[in-house]
Amino acid sequence: MIWKNPRIFWLSLILLVLFIVPALLAPWIVPYDPEEIHLSAQLRPPSLEHPLGQDQNGSDILSRLLYGARISLYVGFWVICIAGIIGITIGLISGYYGGWVDTLIMRIVDVLLAFPGLLLAIALVAVLGPNLNNVIIALTVQGWVSYARLVRGQVLAVKEQEFVLAAQTSGISDGRVMFRHILPNIIQPVIVQATFNLAGTIIAESSLSFLGLGVPPGTPSWGAMLSEGKDVLIDAPFVSIFPGLAIMLVVLICNILGDALRDHFDPKISR
């Protein structure tokens, strides 16, 4: 299949890789310890020694920014993987079997969708306790429903086609029909959904950290850095500007990449 917007796809993919690689290499490439405190260097503006400046504790903002990217990657990766596996499995079961199974699953999905995603995550983290693993659990509880609805709809569209009927009549198990024959033919929109969900997960994690419900205090995180910077926004705006720009750029890149993938996978979309 010919790419409709190859330049946009490759540019956004390269930019996303440029975000991922420094985050993975952060322990080896950061110029300073992100948790090192120098009270005598509080709120120093950007300089050659500290390109993005120093925060209220005198910590290097660039180093904290790179380590904060690791937090976003960690949460985003695990939420997408866990929510994707759960949502795909449930969506396959719901669409394939139909009947009361489909009705029950879709009513559970409707209940979860009735709650705003961030508010549900805040409530769950408040109950479970503020730490990174609980943030992943909270975002997964809300995240799997989008995959389930998408996969269910795709299964309903393809389960009556000849290749599925042929697989069923050959006597193989339902699980093999779903995962070996149906899933490979509906995985493309799931990949697009995962790309958009990565952007949403980064925003959600940053929001929870901003509210003090994410990483422990002092741990480098983009949301926590924004929260710390809001108190000195007038005197040292760079403390908040750089993590805010990082969140905005990564979310924008993920959305552009998702749009390019959607345009490629869906021939009905025209520009």
Q: What features would you describe in this structure?
A:
It is a single chain. The chain is mainly alpha-helical and 271 residues long. The chain has a single domain, classed as Orthogonal Bundle (MetI-like fold), CATH 1.10.3720. It contains 10 helices and no strands. It has helices spanning 6-24, 26-29, 61-97, 99-113, 117-128, 132-158, 162-169, 174-210, 222-229, 238-265. The radius of gyration is 22 Å and the shape is elongated. The two termini are 16 Å apart. The model has no long low-confidence stretch (mean pLDDT 88).
Set out the fold topology.
Elements lengths: L5 H19 L1 H4 L31 H37 L1 H15 L3 H12 L3 H27 L3 H8 L4 H37 L11 H8 L8 H28 L6
SSE order: HHHHHHHHHH
CATH superfamily: MetI-like
How many distinct domains?
Answer: 1
Share in helix: over 70%
Please state the average pLDDT score.
88
Low-confidence stretches: none
Give the termini separation: 16 Å
Task: For the structure shown, list the relevant keywords.
271 residues, single chain, MetI-like fold, 72% helix
Short description:
Helix content is 72%, strand content 0%.
